[in-house]
Amino acid sequence: MRRRVVKAGLSTIGALSLFLVNAMPVFGATQTANDTPQSVSPSNSQIFTPSPQAEQFVNYMITSGLIKEFALGPNGQLTLKEPLSLIQQKYHLDSAQMSDLEYILNESQEYADTSPSVGRISPQLFYKNGIIYFTHSEVVATLFAAASLGPEAVVAALEALGTLTGGPIGTAIVAILSAIGAPSLAQFTYYIIQAYYNNEGVYLGISWNGIFPNIVTGTWK
What we know:
Number of helices: 8
Helix content: 40-55%
Structural class: alpha+beta
Order of helices and strands: HEHEEHHEHHHHEE
Distance between the termini: 25 Å
Mean pLDDT: 76
Strand content: 5-15%
Number of strands: 6
Low-confidence stretches: 1-41, 114-128
Largest sheet: 4 strands, mixed
Strand order of the largest sheet: 1-4-5-6
């Protein structure tokens, strides 16, 4: 399984590199590993620990191919390429899995309908420095397989991990995705692939310029 995933990851590196040249974030510039403020580190931010429910569902999304069924709507919210009833039949989802899937989609829609300047998405929402760290084991377990499929799959995996884990950190993940928009995750997707091969973790967060969020992302050891 790992050998197949590695091969898939290698095949995406060239395509992602070309995509990153043309990709523009929804808000502001991207802060990368080289220009992230020195105060940002795992010691003063939060290392994300997904719940067993979140890990189980994301792993099923990846192994079954369900993660390929996600698309992004006009407001950046997660949608499905086919109706829920067909998805349920195609991937043999039981009632618990359907409940998880519907919950993820509903949460994505709720945040997509919220303006960063007036609603739930605000600097006060995010944990400490607004940076969330994923360990190398989390990169191996879930994020790399999603990154091999592209930014949309990464959005789906992060939405599921954040929504199903819940709590302040899970909520922050979902809100970060809503604030920065999917196009901003192109660089993060590339960092995931680097982290996989370099035995590193990745981080994702936001710095604020007034009411305008800017993505902060990179790798860490």
